Amino acid sequence: MNPPLSHSVAIRQADLHDPAEAARIEAFVAEHGATPFHRPAWLLAIEQGTGQRALGLVAERAGVLEGWLPLTEVRSPLFASALVSSAFGVGGGPLADNETTSLLLCRAAEELAQRHAVSSVEIRGGSAPEGWQAITGKHANFSRPLAADREAELLAIPRKARAEIRKCLQSPLEIVTGRSADDLAAFYPCYAASVHNLGTPVFPRQLFAAVLNHFGEDAEIITALHNGQAVSSVLSLYHDGAVMPFWGGGGFAARALKANERCYFELMDHGRARGCTHYDYGRSKIGSGPYKFKKWQGFEPEPLTYWTWTAQGRTARNIDPSDQGYSSSIALWKKLPLSVATRVGPWIARGLG
Length: 353
Description:
By secondary structure, this protein is of the alpha+beta class. The protein has two domains: 10-136 and 305-319, Gcn5-related N-acetyltransferase (GNAT) (Aminopeptidase, 3-Layer(aba) Sandwich); 141-303, 3-Layer(aba) Sandwich (Aminopeptidase). Helices cover 38% and strands 26% of the residues. It has twelve helices and 15 strands. Strands 1, 2, 3, 4, 5, 6, 7 and 15 form an eight-stranded mixed sheet that branches. Strands 9-10-11-12-13-8-14 form a seven-stranded mixed sheet, sandwiched between helices. Helix 2 (40-50) runs antiparallel to helix 7.
């Protein structure tokens, strides 16, 4: 009897605009318990919402999918170009059945970057081959299981923070959830005001519309209204049993009303009602205000490791807002009228993914 034929792994660029190909990769992501930022739906939403090209590499053996690396080609007139896994997300990196295939996908990404004349490759999670630079000590993620009910959720929060949450639950706010154009219209000014106060360019409104469109019921907006006006709003993702508040915020009125805290707590309750078992508070820069706030609420930081590879003779992009070189730009941006920042910001923010 002849021995079985040995098949090597073949890596090729995915066609994400082929519904069958995208569905096949979506199934692979679901089977491997990966992040929502590994989903083709995420890459296609980013492409539709920012104009940055959705790419990706698949690894196959005898026609069977064994690995996947989601990528977005991010170009900007202000920053160096990059292939990012995954752009505008906080997770990504190679997803594979074994370490060998994972490393092969990274090497293939190097070749793809050189063919596209891209300066660097960035992956947000997973592992990388020798020669890649590890980025550590900058970000941490915060996640924990949801409690059994609303009161148990309160008891899971440290005493001082719990007292503040109980106060905000008594505030005169109406909480609404939805995915409609009206929900997006309420969300965007709250988000824009919050981001502007931090000195960061606002993402284009069409990005959020695209995420709602591509994720369907897996994306939703929760908004706190005061006297009929939106004061705080959060766009969340639902993935693999977790509710993930991802983009959101509010203006100065939200602070006095503690509307942001109210939205986040109500989202725990809402996620539980939807069958979620975990609350993923997302990534924060170590030592930042949001980092301290999440720890104050009883969430433990989980340090994140990212990786970058830079083509020979090129310079990797730097979009780290904590870099000292950006301090004067951030201070100036905060002084711009919100109406101006909202018009100009999306042009800049498209290159920040």
